[in-house]
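User: I'm curious whether this sequence folds into something compact or stays loose and floppy. Could you predict its structure so I can see for myself?
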Amino acid sequence: MTLQLGDIAPDFTAATADGEINFYEWLGDSWGVLFSHPADFTPVCTTELGTVASLSDEFARRDTKVAAVSVDGAEDHQAWADDIAETQGHAVNFPMIADEDRKVSELYGMIHPLASDTATVRSVFVIGADKRIKLTLTYPASTGRNFAEILRVIDSLRLTAEHQVATPADWQNGEDVIITPAVSDADAAERFPGYRSVKPYLRYTPQPTRA
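Assistant: Here's the prediction. I'll summarize afterward.
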């Protein structure tokens, strides 16, 4: 299954290292990040899950819940969590979904046969409060993800969902944003007083305040 931007994120019920969850019930009205890792007790994945655990306050500040998934079982997840805490200095504080039957992996298209017939690649899905896919990323097994970038994208997604603005290249939270072409100059003057126009199609304004 290939999920595209705007698609409804599939719901599922699955075992985790801490018991069974229903994905939609667990998400509630929050945003979510669902990310897969190829296998438990592997080096790159160990650093990734430790990094995500260290960023729990940052995700919480954005009202975003995080869950990891792999094709290993819940008991393996529990044992691996001890290694993550020991080696990375942060205990896993988010669901580690067990997907031995490949149900979740297949729903989200996390298994890429040309990479592996059985293990998941490093997929990332950012899911909005409306349960729609807002972002997809796919990394090979050999490359660890940049979770600071994922936080940056969540900031952009949440901001642009509330205002008719876009974020420029390398934008960081708090920097100027771009007024979208859908906003006329007259409307821009009213909604974004003092905006600056570099070209008729390129107009900057200070970042609006999020609701």
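Summary: The first strand starts at residue 13 and ends at 14. The mean pLDDT is 91.
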